[in-house]
Write a structure and sequence with these properties.
This protein is an alpha/beta fold. It has a domain of 177 residues: Alpha-Beta Barrel (TIM Barrel). The strands form two sheets. The chain has an eight-stranded parallel barrel, surrounded by five helices.
């Protein structure tokens, strides 16, 4: 046991040293802000919810270790669906949950299992954000009831004390919204009987001006996806975008939680777009000997490079100062809770949310 503890300490220390070295080597161009003290006042004493994903768990222990006293809830992403439309949890999700519970059980974090409408197809490809799946699950009172039972069974069986629903791409489909609202209401009532908390994740384009969501669940609004897959190059969020999203949520019941996203995207000249973490962005800076520029409206970093095949790339990503700026925008409008998508590949995030 002692040997294992020593090895764990050495591993965490080495990650910390690598992270610091990578950050210290970056020369950032752009605007130097002089209102950091105001940021500090607005972001101190916030308890955060964080997501961890099944495909990226390498840094999980290191990142949680450095922010453990600032975390309220951990959302484990994700449970999704087999081709037969039966929900399941990947083994990596369960393993992450058990690791965190073993290491930090005394912290009493809320542990949410995130359910997404992703479907694994027969040829082993995936249909992401599948709305036809939702129509099937909500088709009849019986199918909806069975889906709720499945959710509660799978979550409680593994020991989660919370459920998060991340069913996306409903967009402006009011018929599906009507079914989804009925589902939320029934799920919350059933979960409440078992002392299971419920979070509902909403996209920025949710038509909150024409739908009424039921009281009870915690509502989490995404403050990201301003730029990303299918868009022109740019940051995941900026000041105007965040302020508009906050205004939209005034009709939501209860205290709203706002979600921010770490990392960023690489936009290739041929239209291909890939996500990347802060660490991966910094590695590209070093490989191509570039210095990022900080954009004023978003406080995000960006740079351009041409790869060995002559392809032009534009990279946008967030560092700790970006996240700090976004949190400050939210906190200036009220005492809101914050969620962070996601753990993994963050070099500097821990500096601003560790107490």
């Amino acid at each position: 046991m002692l040997k294992k503890s020593i090895l764990t300490f050495i591993f965490l220390l080495s990650l910390s040293l690598v992270s610091c070295a990578q950050q210290d080597d970056i020369s950032i161009k752009g605007i130097d802000r002089d209102d950091n003290k105001e940021y500090e006042r607005n972001i101190n004493n916030i308890n955060y919810s964080i997501w961890t994903t099944y495909w990226d768990t390498k840094d999980l222990e290191y990142e949680i270790e450095n922010m453990q006293d600032s975390i309220d809830d951990i959302c484990y992403f994700a449970a999704y669906f087999h081709q037969d439309k039966i929900v399941f949890i990947p083994s990596e999700t369960i393993e992450s949950f058990r690791r965190v519970r073993t290491l930090y059980g005394s912290k009493k974090y809320g542990s949410y299992l995130t359910f997404v409408n992703d479907l694994v197809l027969e040829d082993n490809t995936s249909s992401l954000k599948d709305v036809n799946l939702l129509y099937t699950l909500f088709q009849t009172d019986k199918s909806m009831e069975n889906h709720i039972k499945d959710i509660l069974y799978i979550a409680t069986k593994e020991g989660f004390n919370g459920i998060e629903i991340d069913y996306e791409a409903i967009n402006k489909d009011l018929k599906l919204w009507e079914l989804f609202i009925e589902f939320i209401d029934k799920l919350y009532k059933s979960a409440n009987e078992k002392n299971i908390s419920v979070r509902i994740l909403l996209e920025p384009n949710a038509p909150l001006d024409i739908i009424t969501l039921p009281e009870g669940p915690k509502y989490v609004m995404m403050c990201y996806n301003l730029h990303g897959y299918g868009t022109t190059p740019g940051p995941k969020a900026n000041k105007g975008f965040i302020e508009d999203v906050i205004k939209k949520t005034k009709t939501l019941p209860g205290k709203v939680n706002f979600a921010l996203a770490t990392g960023g995207y690489v936009f290739q000249n041929n239209g291909i777009i890939n996500s990347l973490t802060e660490r991966e962005a910094v590695e590209l800076l070093k490989i191509y000997n570039k210095s990022p520029i900080r954009e004023e409206e978003s406080q995000a970093l960006f740079f351009n490079y041409i790869d060995n095949e002559g392809m032009s790339h534009e990279v946008w990503y967030a560092d700790k100062d970006t996240i700090k700026y976004w949190v400050n925008i939210i906190q200036e409008t009220g005492n809101y809770d914050i969620s962070l998508w996601r753990m993994g590949g963050n070099l500097s995030l821990m500096d601003i949310i560790s107490k």
